[in-house]
């Protein structure tokens, strides 16, 4: 399993941002989410705000005061003099963070915005410049750009288009209504891998088999698999979990028609859950921010082994190029490929190995 701190340390854009923030006025706020991992060494900030429970826990362990919410900077009790942002994968989310920072900073406060050329940093700097009505000081380094904005008394333009990030959006994705929002994995579509897994529930648990009583959606996103399980097994108790505040909020809304038997919980890879679960459904991540991390599924395999009932089944859907079966051998005695497409494979894991 890779060292998550050392992976983060390889993000030069984040290090360029931190270097700039070191000598900036305090209080210094770092707003961070899916695009960042906690780097090794000092984090030169006084306060952090994140939507990820794993990052919040790690930052607090480092002694950094941290707010955990869905990027609502109005929750700040102290006015920051410096805000540092590394651009996110989702354009609407990055726009939301820039809009929030512009409101949170006082006149004369500093906004640092950093990213790589292929991440669209040039466009973000230009749009932020038009919004604030000021020109940034720009540093360029190895394909990266870092912009320093001094907030004027009154921004000259209108806020950037964040697709109403602050609110859940109702989208018709498969002939039915789903509540979702930017920043959640696959938020505007039904992920093909998740659709493959949902369609296979009838194969793994045919009508003649005893249905699972306890079901876990591990890494639930906006809740497509959890809702599919709740529909397939009307007597089952469904638990969905994700480390992203926005995902849990959306999943909770999508599970609301099923009442108390279906809940969504904020947790990092199922931390705090007791189990056992008769069925575990998982479409694990293999990207962390902009980077490919093909071994991320190892954490989900390990947790599934701990939470799965002895006679239960865990269903994992992953990209074809991921060697999930090889990793799963350390955790499960029975590994079976249920289905595959050109892009995905669905793997059933049974008989967990106990320590």
What labels would you give this structure?
355 residues; 7-stranded mixed sheet; elongated; disordered N terminus
Q: What structural class is derived from the secondary structure elements?
A: alpha/beta
Low-confidence stretches: 1-9, 287-294
Q: State the end-to-end CA separation.
A: 18 Å
Sheet with the most strands: spatial strand order: 3-2-1-4-5-7-6
Q: Total helix count? A: 11
**Shape, please?**
elongated
What is the secondary structure topology, with strand pairs?
Layout: H1 4-9, H2 12-21, E1 28-32, E2 47-50, H3 53-61, E3 65-68, E4 82-86, H4 91-104, E5 110-116, H5 121-132, E6 137-141, E7 144-150, E8 169-172, E9 177-180, H6 192-199, H7 201-204, E10 214-218, H8 224-232, E11 237-242, H9 245-255, E12 262-266, E13 277-282, E14 287-288, E15 291-292, H10 297-307, E16 308-319, H11 324-328, E17 332-340, E18 344-352
Helix pairs in contact: 6-8
Question: How would you describe this protein?
Answer:
The model is unreliable at 1-9 and 287-294 (pLDDT under 50). The protein is an alpha/beta fold and 355 residues long. Strand 14 (287-288) and strand 15 (291-292) form a beta hairpin. The protein is built from 11 helices and 18 strands. Helix 6 packs parallel to helix 8 (224-232). It is 28% helix and 28% strand.
